[in-house]
Amino acid sequence: MQEPVSEAPKIVSSKEYEKELARLQTELVRMQEWIVHQGLRVMVIFEGRDTAGKGGTIKRIMERLNARYCRVVALGMPTERERTQWYFQRYIAHLPAAGEIVLFDRSWYNRAGVERVMGFCTEEEHEEFFRTCPQLERALVRSGIILVKYWLSLSDDEQERRFTERITNPGKRWKLSPMDLEARARWVDYAEAKDEMFSYTDIKEAPWHVVDADDKKSARLNIISHLLQIVPYDAGPARRGPTPCPSAAVVPAPTDRQPDLGPDPLRRALSRLRRVDRDVGRLDRGEDVDAFAEVEVGDRGDGDLGDERYRAGDVDAHAIPEKIGAVDRS
After folding, report:
1. Cys-Cys with 35: which of 14, 40, 308, 325 at CB 3.0–4.6 Å?
2. Any idea which fold 14-249 has?
């Protein structure tokens, strides 16, 4: 049987890339609204070869998101104090709270990669990492955190080209470090360390997702599209209103039968109170108040809050001013 001939991957044009990126970033905004609305906790880990494009991908994800609820964690070398702590301790401090997205530009997997290859950890520390890491990630998932792990894969030739570009381009030279050059000389060691890492940490609760990053634009689109599929969100309710405040993020979503007070509820409530004061004055003067009683049942005038939902008994119309006052004070 003749083997099928594989076609060369399609290179995304700049025009197609910008159009699709804009669409996906809009969906990311809707996803974030839902995450804040529902009080979800999302943690995304980006690992991969040097120059694979982790930082560029994170930048495109963050570009249109609300930075109050989405942040990047890119820790440097541990301090002397942090070296004496439990290895995972400095990462645990950055885990997401309700309504937050946290993007890790490298993570605790440094121990399985650079620390292992460059000899920055002992054999015992390395073995302990593989014993603890799967258990820790299972515990995070059980606690309700949505944990997503991406590995950006890069070919030897493409990494060589990108390293050369960093050396010759003054605008990118800051990305280059002596550690990168040393890592470039240990390509095979890093490949073996990655395979070992996958064998221990590619677990059912938090599997690895490998992305071909030779084409940066395609890799970014693929990652964002996959993230939108893997994080459960409903764009419908999120589109109907603004992003809730943090305190509202942990409260169940409002039902469809909750009253809609309109764009300016305080103005409408004050109008109602003024009309009540006017009709009370009529009562004091002994005037006819039949019209007032009729309004109380269900006037649909511009200054009235009542409609068929209030008349049906879903909401006490007399309690509305108190509810508005509570909103104003929050």
Report:
1. 40
2. Rossmann fold (3.40.50)
